[in-house]
User: Which sequence fits this backbone?
């Protein structure tokens, strides 16, 4: 083999790779972040090879010691990365051979870069999922705590962004918590399919060496080895699934962000975000911009794009491995970075939200938010619902004309629309009476909100204990 050709595959080549092609096909500039996991996989592989007699114990120990030294070099920033060596695997293997000689070349026995990279990505993604899992738990805990604190704080509930019925701020926050809880479950479910080991599949057809894949899987903490060598090296559906659940998570964070942006505006004035989560204007000195939720809202599109990229990457690939799959890492890595950043921002910010209870209450008083309560009152008095609906509609029209909310009308004013209305009607027309009346599981009554928060807290504790 020419000294100018790549040492991992250059034996059948008569000339070196074109300089541009070398740069174009290399992945080391982005896959070097996998070095911890590549080294961990190599240590497990060497340990297994020694156990089945392919390597001697001395060779195993030399490889493990050399890999440990290389890991420290990378961590300290002294490792000599080379684009000519293409990827993280060959850079580490070449350095290992420099350190320990021909024994370093024996490390690759019984494996291929195809199953090696598939294993590295799964190890890396599994660790990142665990980090995201912790951030999701922190966010959920913050939502639950804030919801408990604001269980009695009345605000308007909206449909079509129009005032609909009174709810409590705590109830609204628990709606956010339910969204994130489902995302948390999806993350846990995705991890099960990530946690399958491709190593031992080699290039595509397995290996003739007497390897023991169950040993390697146990050493690396995988639940089991992959069943089929072709599938193990070629599919990236686990990465696509993670990108899909990340898109759902970012969609939920984006919806929350939209409400936070609205609520911090002067027109709503429902909440205040601490200054540390906001920025100012270079020209308008009075401005306090909710940049964190705005940026999270914007980053949702970035993650959606990565999902589409990964789906498109895989859609026409024949079995087994193809060079196309080099393109899986950058969208996956950026998705991970984006999700972790957004979750950290939200988990820090949510507990620091300050509710402007007076503004929320005043907003709930506007827009005839207790109209449905009046309709329900009439139904209980024996009026058919459709008739009750029309009566309340007439009452609202009158209120608009007179500039009065339903709760501000006199009994005589209300009775002109129905004789079924009596003195006790004012009990249901108050905001407090409206939210308290929905005293069932999932309802807005403050006691129900507190009970729901406790159930959410218990469910979160059980989930985290199950992982431990």
Assistant:
């Amino acid at each position: 083999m020419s000294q100018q050709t790549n040492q991992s595959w250059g034996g059948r080549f008569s000339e070196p790779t074109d300089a541009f092609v070398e740069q174009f096909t290399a992945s080391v500039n982005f896959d070097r972040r996998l070095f911890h996991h590549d080294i961990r996989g190599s240590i497990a592989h060497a340990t297994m090879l020694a156990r089945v007699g392919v390597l001697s114990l001395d060779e195993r120990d030399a490889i493990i010691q050399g890999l440990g030294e290389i890991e420290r070099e990378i961590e300290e920033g002294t490792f000599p990365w080379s684009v000519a060596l293409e990827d993280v695997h060959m850079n580490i293997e070449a350095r290992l051979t420099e350190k320990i000689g021909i024994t370093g070349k024996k490390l690759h026995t019984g494996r291929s870069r195809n199953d090696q990279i598939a294993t590295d990505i799964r190890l890396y993604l599994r660790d990142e999922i665990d980090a995201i899992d912790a951030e999701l738990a922190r966010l959920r805990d913050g939502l639950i705590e804030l919801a408990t604190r604001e269980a009695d704080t009345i605000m308007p509930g909206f449909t079509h962004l129009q005032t609909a019925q009174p709810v409590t701020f705590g109830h609204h926050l628990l709606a956010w918590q339910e969204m994130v809880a489902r995302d948390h479950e999806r993350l846990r479910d995705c991890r099960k399919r990530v946690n399958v080991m491709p190593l031992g599949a080699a290039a595509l057809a397995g290996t003739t060496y007497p390897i023991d894949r169950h040993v390697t899987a146990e050493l690396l903490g995988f639940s089991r080895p992959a069943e089929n060598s072709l599938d193990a090296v070629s599919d990236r559906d686990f990465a696509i699934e993670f990108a899909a659940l990340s898109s759902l998570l970012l969609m939920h964070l984006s919806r929350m962000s939209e409400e936070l942006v609205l609520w911090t505006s002067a027109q709503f004035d429902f909440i205040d975000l601490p200054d540390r989560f906001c920025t100012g204007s270079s020209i308008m000195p009075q401005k306090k911009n909710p940049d964190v939720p705005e940026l999270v809202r914007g980053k949702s599109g970035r993650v959606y794009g990565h999902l589409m990229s990964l789906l498109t990457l895989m859609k026409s690939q024949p079995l087994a491995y193809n060079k196309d799959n080099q393109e899986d890492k950058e969208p996956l890595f950026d998705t991970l970075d984006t999700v972790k950043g957004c979750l950290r921002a939200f988990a820090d910010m949510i507990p620091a939200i300050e509710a402007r209870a007076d503004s929320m209450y005043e907003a709930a008083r506007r827009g005839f938010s207790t109209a449905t309560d009046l309709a329900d009152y009439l139904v209980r008095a024996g009026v058919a619902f459709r008739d009750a609906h029309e009566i309340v509609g007439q009452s609202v029209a009158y209120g608009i004309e007179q500039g009065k909310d339903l709760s501000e009308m006199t009994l005589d004013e209300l009775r002109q629309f129905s004789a079924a209305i009596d003195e006790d009607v004012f009990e249901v027309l108050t905001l407090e009476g409206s939210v308290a009346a929905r005293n069932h599981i999932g309802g807005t009554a403050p006691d129900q909100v507190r009970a729901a928060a406790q159930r959410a807290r218990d469910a979160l504790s059980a989930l985290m204990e199950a992982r431990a």
